[in-house]
Amino acid sequence: MNEVLKNIKERRSVRKFKPDLPGKATLETIAEAGIYAASGRGQQATKTIVVTDPAVRQKIVEANRAIGGWGEGFDPFYGAPAILIVLFDKSCRTGIYDGSLVMGNMMLAAHSLGLGSIWIHRAKEEFDGEDFKRWLADLGVDGEWEGVGHLAVGYADCDLPAPAERKPGRIVWVE
After folding, report:
1. Would you call 50 exposed, middle or buried from its count of C-beta atoms within 10 A (0-12, 13-18, 19+)?
2. Is the CB of residue 86 less than 8 Å from the CB of residue 48?
3. Is 35 strand, coil or helix?
4. Rounded CA gap, 133 and 20, in Å?
5. Within a 10 A sphere around the Cβ of 24, how many other Cβ atoms?
6. H or E stretch covering 150
7. Maximum separation of any 2 CA atoms in the chain, in Å
8. Spatial separation of the C-alpha atoms in residues 6 and 62, rounded to whole Å
9. Are 31 and 24 spatial neighbours (Cβ–Cβ below 8 Å)?
10. Could you read off the pLDDT of 123-133 as tens digits, one per residue?
11. What is the Cα 25 distance to its own chain's centre?
12. What Rg value do the Cα atoms of the chain yield, rounded?
C-alpha cells in the first residue's frame, strides 16, 4: 500500500505519552509538514508555535485545564512533552480551514516518524485571552491571531487503539 495512505489509515490519537522529548530536528520536520498544507488563495496565513520548554508547557496545561473545567492536576495534553500550537491570522477568511489542514499534516507527519499525537482543543479560548496575546507579542508575533488547536506530540506510552468501524454512507457518488 502507498505509504501516505498507510499512514492515513493507521494514525490514531494517543492519550498517554512517555516523558522523553523528541529531538529538535524531528519536531522541525513535523512543523515543516504543517507549512506545506494547502491554504485558501495561497495565503499561508497560519503560524505554528513549537513549545518544548517545560515551564511554558505547564502554563499552557493550566490554562487549557481551566478552560476545560477539569480539576487541579489533570493534564489535558496527556503528558506529551511537546505542544505545537496552530494559529491563523484573523484577517484570513479561510484561516480555520487552513489551520485544520496544518494540524492534519502534522498529525500524519508525527505518525510517519514513529511519534504519537493528539489534537487538543481550546486554543481559540486561550489566545482570546490577554495573557496569551501578550505572550505572542513577547515572542515577536505581531497582529491578531486566533487559535486553531494544539498538537500534543511525543513517544506513545501505550498501544495505538484499533480503528473504529467506518460508518456506512459517508461517500456519495454522482456519476
Report:
1. middle
2. yes
3. helix
4. 29
5. 11
6. strand 145-154
7. 55
8. 36
9. no
10. 999 999 999 99
11. 17
12. 17
Identity (one letter) of the amino acid at 47? Answer: K
- Per-residue pLDDT tens digits for 137-157: 999 999 999 999 999 999 999
- Give dist(CA 114, CA 132) in Å, integer: 31
Q: Which has the closest alpha carbon to 38: 120, 108, 97, 121?
A: 97
**83: which 3 cell numbers?**
505542544
Asked if 93 contacts 45 with a C-beta cutoff of 8 angstroms, the reply is no
Give percent of the chain with pLDDT exceeding 90: 98
Cell 504519537 belongs to residue: 116
**Per-residue pLDDT tens for 39-64?**
999 999 999 999 999 999 999 999 99
C-alpha cell of 108?
500524519
Beta bridge pairs of residue 156: 17
State which fold the 3-154 domain adopts.
NADH Oxidase (3.40.109)
- DSSP, residue by residue, 36-75: TS--GGG---EEEEEE--HHHHHHHHHHHHHHHTPPTT--
Question: Domain segments of the chain: what residues?
Answer: 3-154
Count the helix, strand and coil residues of the chain and give each as a percent rounded to the nearest 5.
40, 20, 40
Q: Which among 154, 140, 167, 151 is positioned nearest to 60, based on CA atoms?
A: 151
Q: What are the backbone angles phi and psi of residue 91, rounded to the nearest 5°?
A: -80, -5
